[in-house]
Amino acid sequence: MSSRRTSRFAAIHKCHPSEVLKPLCAGPCCKANQAAVVDEKKRKEAPEDYARQLKKKLYDAQAKKRDELAEARGIDPGKKHLLETAEKARPATV
Which of 28, 24, 6 is nearest to 15 (CA)? Predict the structure, then answer.
C-alpha cells in the first residue's frame, strides 16, 4: 500500500524527466526557480528599493570591469583620474 501512495504522489521533474521529484528538490533548476521567486517578491514589495539595488549592482559591476581593464593596461588604480579628459574632469557650468 505504501508503494501505491508514493507512486501516486510522485511527480516527474520538468528538467530531468528520468528523475522523480522529492518533496524538497535540491537540483540547480529548482534553486534557480526559488531565487527567481524571491527576486519577484522583492520587486513587488518594494519597487524603489529593488530599482536602487539594481542600479548599485550595475554600477559596481561596471566599476569592477573598469578597474580590471585599467590594471590589464598597466595603469595604477589610484591614478585613473589622470586619464580623464578636461571636459569630464571639469564640472559643467550653466
Answer: 28
